[in-house]
Amino acid sequence: MFFSRAKRTHAASPESVPKRYDDVEFSLSLDSTEATLRGVFGGDNTIIFRRFGPNREFLILLVDGMINDQIVNDYIVGRVEDACEKGGSPDMDTLANEVLSINDVKRTFDPVEVFDTLLYGDTVFFRDGSREVLILSTKGFERRGISESENEKGIKGPQEAFSEAFMPNLSLIRRKLRNPALKFSFRKIGRVTRTNVVVCYIEGLCEDGLIEELNDRLDTVEMNGILDSNYIAEVICDSPASPFRTIGATERPDIVAARLLEGRAALVVDGSPTVLTLPHLLVEYFQSQNDYYRSFWGASVSRVLRYVGFFIAVSAPALYTAILNFHPELLPTTMLISAARARQGVLIPTVAELSLMLMALEILQEAGLRAPPAIGQSLSIVGGLILGQAAVDAKIVSAPVVIVVAVWAVTNMMLPNLRSPVFIVTLGLLLLSGALGLYGYALGLAALGVHLSSMRSFGAPYTDFAVPYSMRELRDSLIRAPWRRMKQLPLFPKRGGKPS
Q: Whole domain around residue 301: which residue ranges?
């Protein structure tokens, strides 16, 4: 019933990876070619072999469920049979240039290209007496339509989001940037899945060195399967041990277009609705797509509040612990007496109180994310209220701790993409403050600053624009300036450091 350890080890070894069939050769004899292909696809009932023609000299291969039946029947088989009735059996040149009414006809001798395109919904066409193969675009598999992003909802502006099919995703980007300088470079990654990956950039705006480095890093990705863009992001990113991401991720075409206009690159992965953008800077965590679709006054106020919210989120538990345990003289007398009364009967130390409540709240948020939508939000809110009140009544935690954790939770929600890093940094500062007081808090902030300033994303300093080189760069970092002040493309730090 269970596989042995030896069998499991063998199944995961590189030697067990299926072949790519590079050594397959197509014969002049169609019967021989068909026998070879049936050997390759033996046991797979979704591969359809269809011989037709006056002397059965034509063969098409297609994958059931991934092709458009009408295109195959009317514009391939029907057109070839009509041509045979009118003037005999056409050769490959005539078929490709005159007979087949297909939007995209590619001619090849490469078996790997034949298998890749066949398994992605195209039809491959063979003719007796020729080793050449025609690849006909007949994709017709089901895919999710363009819809609104669930994770990056916009109040104003475009509402469309990427889907799992990469060609429609590329068309969404192309619609935003109708310029021949926009380039799409295709490649395949994954020994088994052979996943399509597209590097997008604007020629003339994006540095050549960035694209070269990105391609070099993609060459190092050696995995059996790529099922999502995050598989690649974790392999090619800078500082993989850091909780802060150095590669951006978005589901919105307008954000990708804006990043490309800044001279960055994007990575589209087939099967994933999330597009990677790089380099990625720390300041992007505090920017929102809604900032650019409303008044610059409201956008600037919201952006400043996000910076303040980040500081409060990482500092509130640590400062409460440090001041209450080590520096009570900093508190007004009435507040100090109130905090002391609230802690009467509580047996565990303040650090343990806060750590326990932070972890409990994080567990509730995780449960709410994974619960059915109808009860997920209620679980997080009601669960937090009930748990907090019960903990205070049972003297497990004090009432001020519940208030501090509630403030932490609200400010943390202002930056959903920073949720995990904020939790990790908060716990680190809390432990240091519990051990050393305000000195530990200051030491932790200094360590965080050194860590962030030492990070780079594809050669670009991670904290650029957070500490601008000039007042001009403040136009879209701490605040969002009016569009009349941002007529030119936003400056972006070159990989050497300072922006040009």
A: 295-454
